[in-house]
Design a protein that fits this description.
heterodimer, A: alpha+beta, 7 helices, B: alpha/beta, ten-stranded mixed β-sheet, 19 strands, globular
Chain lengths: 268, 373
Amino acid sequence: MLRFLIATGVTLMLLGFGAAGWQYWQSLPDAPAVEMVAETGTPPPASAARTAAALPQSWPISPTGGAVAVTDVRAFLDQDRSEPARSAVITLTATLDDLLAEGEVPPEPVFSEVFGDIRAPLLAEGLCPVLTKGIARLCVVHSARVVPGSVDLARGTARFRIELYYGLGPDAGALPDLALHVLDQEPVTIDPENATGHASVEAALAALLDAATAACPAEEAGQACRVLRLSLDWAPGQTASGQAQVSWLRPLPKSLRVAPPIDPSPEG
Amino acid sequence: MVRSLVSFVMLLGIVLGAVAYVIRNPDLRDQILPASATGFLREKGALAALGAPDGDVLIGATPQDFLIETSGGLVADGPIAAAGGSKPVFIKDVLSGHSADPGSDIPAEITTIRPILGCQLTRPLGGTVIGHVTSTSSPLTLALTTYSDADLAAAVQDYVDAYRKFGAGARLPASGPRYQSHDVAVTETAAPVYLVLENLAGNRIWNIHLADGVQIERVVLLGGNQSGVANLDPVVPVEVILAEGLAECGIDPAYVPGPSPISGVQPTPDAATRSRADAYDIWFRDTFDVLAGESRLGFAEGAVTLVGPVPSGSESKAVYASIKGARVRTTQGPFFEIRGQVAAGQDFAARVLMIATGFAFGDLDRLLQGGTF
């Protein structure tokens, strides 16, 4: 009887500890923890190992002396990695038949929206070349989707939203000492005179880029002028509207001064 | 040898005692055993043999204990049926042999019926009792599925969204929109019953269970995407106007919330809801001789509704009739499936995959987005 009780006890202990050990083993992470989680709450890609803190003097201040959002700092400073704050968002109207392959029959109307959503990247194919011919060294289509509920069955059209990430070329210019400068930003709107008559969304995007880059040599522009956050709304035969956010560095205003670093005194 | 035998018997006794304790304790049982196992034990009479409470009904509980009031209406959260005045009663008190799991039941015969042409329904005869049942949702899901191109398009979009998020790990939908079953227990024997079964959302099969002596004059199915009846005498006529047809007829089903059977509070509807409900009341009265709001029975979400008095004494309960082997008359979408009886590549998930792949030029990876450098 005693042996039976001991054997039962040992068996139950083995089962219990075995189950606990198995649960612990299963709970171990598959891979080493990611070094940093971006403010967006999503882990950065492998290329993002270089954090904002690792950038040279990565915290320029605003003209009013306030802190600049880390997303803006990254978009301005780090041109080697894609940043949501440095993107071109293009909303356009296109004909669904333009998305058909040669000889392909259009889908039933009820499928038009999902068809447009799946084929939307075709509309983005000509947009990155516009950026790389102009200001960008790198460009990638981040997303291309149909705008939900935008299908016009009578006209056979739909609205699409395309988001491109780009990195500026090396001529973006060397950076001065950020501690002695402030980061300024200004919106640039597409010139209404140039807004009409663009036969294609590519032409309208090129016009917006021209307007944005033209703002840089202006007298009020500071150093390291960089084009960020392009947005364009285009439809065939209608006036295009677009805006760009242009950022540059200005010398530190006289009313501001650099605070000495807060270090422990030598005496400890 | 003897000691080992005694030890074994003791161990067996401990194990059996633990099992019996679990089975007799409904809370513990529901936590440990899957619903299918509990159903099996109930079906085999094991629960009764062990003296365990049948189903989820706790000893000493009242039907009101299983009624929940939500912003969407009253929800039956247990073995209760809706009786007159939205009062809950235990299902076992009005319907004998009820099954809460018809998910694998396959009907013997399915007949397709079509909505009526126009908007004029056959009026009830004089002296008829109107049994007006409404239901927004039922927890009883059947093995029958029906869908249209619009359902497929929505499912393809969901799959595309999932593929963009999870890649090849995205899951295809398990099935298209399934029919839900709603049990209608009829105990009214004083006069023939004219049933108006109003489906406020989705696909619904109304499963009719009659007490002795009940006569059904006619069944009218209103609303929903698709609607049908099961276990109804084939000679009883059925007329249907689905939600699409109601809209085309300018009929907008609307109700002013009644007083809460739990708190007794009467909600104050806004003017627009009141106006819609009044208009619907007028159409309903002109068609069925009763007001919609006053005659309606049923919870927003529930499995069983009682038409007629709660049986007492010698009065007979309605007798449950299973979907399994039943005759079903129902409207259908362009596609209809019975689980387990669909040819390979012809089911809902296969169609979704085929459409998504075709739109993506044969390569689902073209769906992926989120490009970065």
